[in-house]
Structures are given as C-alpha cells and as structure tokens.
Task: structure prediction
Amino acid sequence: MIYVDTSVVLAQLLAEDRRPHDSLWGESLISSRILEYEVWNRLHARNLGESHGEAARLLICRFAMLELVPPVLARALQPFPSPVRTLDALHLASADFIRQQGQSVKIASYDKRLLDAARRLNFAVSHLYRHRSSLRRIVTAVNPDTKSATIEILETIDLLSL
Result:
C-alpha cells in the first residue's frame, strides 16, 4: 500500500515536470481525508476548480481515505524526529496509524521535509521521480590556426527519464 500526500496529486493534476510514473495510479493508494481538502483548496486558490475539477474528482476517487480518527490526531500532537508542518504531521500520523494496524505502507511525496521525517520514522519511501531532460547532439570543431573551438548543437531531443 502506498500512502500518497498532496504534493503528488497536485503534481499530476497540474502536469508538473515532476509527475509520478503512470504506474503509481494502478497501485493500492491511501491517504488522509485532508488530501481532498488540500487539493481543492489549491485548485480554488489558482482558479482551476472548473478546468481541473473533473480530473481532481477522478484522481481522488482512486484513494482509500483514512478519516482523522482520535489515534491519528493524538499521534500528530507528538514530536516528530525532524521538523514538519501541521498538515505533514497529520499525513505522517495517518501513515503511522496504518502501519500500526499491521499494514505495510510506503510514503509517496515530493515534499523533502515530509520525506525526511518519514525516513527517520523508518517508513519505506516510494521513488516517483520522473524528470524531463534533454539529449543533445553536439559537434565540436577546433580551428588549428587559432586553437579556438566551435560548438554547434545539431538538435535537442526532449526525453522523459525515470
């Protein structure tokens, strides 16, 4: 089971360069109910509710949602091994609750602070990075008289690397 935080969902919805690989969406996904509120809050803040609303609903429907039950809230009040923001504490407390129920859970996030705390709590981390990069064919020529080099880029090919 993969616990997904809001940064991953927003990266997918907003078609950021750091979107996760498509295979993630076929996994067993879970998150805290706050994911839904965070996603809609960010979409509305950017006036994207209408244009991205249907995609958001479809993506959110893929998740099992964990409610903010008292043990999750109690854990979020406890210290974490590294500084985290309030909503990240709720996400980590939710993942910890799932783990305490005997479930194996990996954390998927683009939030470095949250991932650092997750690792310090001994959570496995899902590797989701998919970057845009480019490949260039380059020709270098050296002028023997002036000993200066000329570099010419013949083409740039956009790649999607995992």
